[in-house]
């Protein structure tokens, strides 16, 4: 298998196309193909393949376990979309909208089972280790999602609480994606731990970047309306930081928009963005993102593997850092 | 470990009490304790312990895997209750009523993960086999639930379709419960296959008994209102059989109540029960139940294990057959 990003991506997309999880009843299995084929960057399974490539050239054996990560990720999207009442995912109707909530619950459930099934493609000697790590990660993702929901009704969320939440909801799976490559590559426990840590830190940076792009991204490139998080009153890193650093004047504006019964939604995005600009929230967030990415890359540098192999993974991670969508 | 039913039940209930799946966030983990402590017969984990006892006296090692089956079962209840919009479970508010739908989805998700985690307590050499069998069973349970939902909007469901649906939705897990005991007891593939078949057949009989008790059970003993399935227009074995055997006169009554816009819901239970009585549906169903139980017991008799050990499992299964609730 040639180890360039486009060729690996090609392998993964072929795997998505070919993988038949089941056929009957079609209402259960069609939503799985549907959500997996909505696109997406395949970031997580790519991480697994690139991580595996640090230790072996035989990447074939990593494809199905990598797909387990992708299937699990899409299971969480399917269920999260129900909880968030999201009508669209990547510009297309969400599963609970296209079918119904019951089908979205049940298709998601069977996807979680299929993720475990794909992990069974690990070498026998690695199954226990792989599943235990996956269980740990999967529980954390659920914990993070519940915390995120709790934040909605919480008056004040601290920076530390927020970072903790995203370290579970988003970053744990990126950590597992890299960890899994280490497990498949049969590397040392120390290397595996560095890989996981790298993924977690990159994952936190990745989520903060998401928060940032929602407000300061290029609408066309991001592919969704700017300021969606602001309209949805989401307690993002940007908002938390703004609350933390605002002078009484700006605090008043924040409170008006997020706590009061103000009906000024038309100007909400504009006014809040102005507050962010006045408080240098963009720069503060970028600095934070960089610090997490740097920490992640530092962890990667500690993994004992050939430098030229690590550079592909490093370059890929850096592209994530500089992404515009 | 003493191998009487009450002592095994005691062991399982202690395990339920002691098992802490997690603590934070509490909204995620409290519903798990809640649903597991609503009671229930612990039928499935008992099956696993009794099945294990055919091959070994060391039942300690079967307790956590048996709990995996119970946790999985309760995960399906938690999610099914959302889909069925059920307000009560064993006389208490369902999780989505007591908390909310999002929490019921997410707690259920993490329960499925925890079921896998409990299976990791299997001996290393048995993990792959155990998880593969569990994956197969779990997929079937989801398929059966989706079929059951599809039946709601289907005009005609045949007896064969119905039996196929319950063989997936209900019976597959009873099959796995017994199969798992065979895996833990390291018995032959032939024995394991007979155990699974026994569980599936007993499971089908068990579900048909459920259908029967809904109409002909003792209200106090069953603990819920008689005729709930009739009011909910559920396509049970009884209704399918009535449609199949009804003369034009009775077909008219059935159509009136289940297909027309008749408002006669007050007399619905009474009138449908009368139709069932006239068509001997009770006897027909009892005959069917007996045939599945007999098939199940025949499979059990083919399992190579000491007769006196098999008799406990056989007696327990027979009690299920003669249950009044």
Description:
2 copies of one chain form a homodimer. Chain A is mostly helical. Chain A has a domain at 1-121: Farnesyl Diphosphate Synthase, CATH 1.10.600. Chain A has helices at 5-18, 26-36, 43-52, 60-83, 95-98, 101-119, 124-152, 159-184, 189-216, 219-222, 228-231, 237-245, 248-258, 265-278, 281-302, 307-321; strands at residues 88-89, 92-93. A two-stranded antiparallel ribbon of chain A has the order 1-2. In chain A, helix 4 (60-83) runs antiparallel to helix 6 (101-119), helix 8 (159-184) crosses helix 9 and helix 13 packs antiparallel against helix 14 (265-278). The longest helix of chain A has 29 residues, at 124-152. Chain A is globular, with a radius of gyration of 20 Å. Chain A starts with a helix and ends with a helix. In chain A, 49% of the residues are buried. The mean pLDDT of chain A is 93. At the A-B interface, helix 4, helix 6 and helix 7 of A face helix 4, helix 6 and helix 7 of B.
């Amino acid at each position: 298998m040639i180890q360039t990003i486009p060729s690996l991506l090609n392998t993964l997309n072929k795997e998505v196309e070919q993988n038949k999880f089941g056929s009957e009843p079609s209402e259960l299995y069609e939503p799985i193909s549907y959500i997996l084929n909505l696109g997406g960057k395949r970031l997580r399974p790519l991480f697994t393949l690139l991580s595996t490539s640090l230790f072996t050239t035989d990447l074939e054996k990593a494809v199905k376990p990598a797909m387990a990560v992708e299937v699990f990720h899409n299971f969480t999207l399917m269920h999260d979309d129900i909880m968030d009442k999201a009508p669209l995912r990547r510009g297309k109707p969400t599963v609970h909208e296209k079918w119904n909530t019951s089908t979205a619950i049940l298709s998601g459930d069977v996807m979680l089972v299929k993720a475990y099934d794909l992990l069974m493609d690990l070498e026998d000697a690695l199954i226990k280790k792989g599943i235990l790590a996956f269980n740990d990660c999967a529980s954390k993702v659920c914990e993070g999602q519940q915390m995120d929901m709790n934040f909605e009704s919480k008056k004040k969320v601290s920076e530390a609480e927020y970072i903790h939440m995203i370290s579970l909801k988003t970053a744990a799976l990126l950590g597992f994606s890299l960890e899994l490559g280490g497990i498949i590559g049969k590397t040392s426990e120390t290397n595996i731990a560095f890989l996981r840590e790298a993924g977690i830190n990159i994952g936190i940076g990745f989520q903060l970047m998401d928060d940032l792009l929602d407000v300061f991204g290029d609408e066309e490139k991001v592919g969704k309306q700017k300021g969606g998080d602001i309209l949805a009153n989401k307690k993002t890193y940007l908002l938390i930081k703004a609350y933390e650093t605002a002078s009484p004047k700006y605090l008043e504006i924040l409170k008006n928009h997020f706590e009061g019964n103000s009906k000024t939604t038309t100007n909400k995005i504009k006014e809040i963005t102005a507050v962010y600009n006045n408080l240098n929230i963009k720069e503060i967030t970028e600095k934070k993102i960089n610090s997490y990415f740097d920490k992640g890359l530092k962890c990667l540098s500690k993994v004992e593997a050939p430098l030229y192999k690590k550079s592909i993974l490093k370059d890929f991670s850096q592209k994530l850092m500089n992404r515009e969508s």
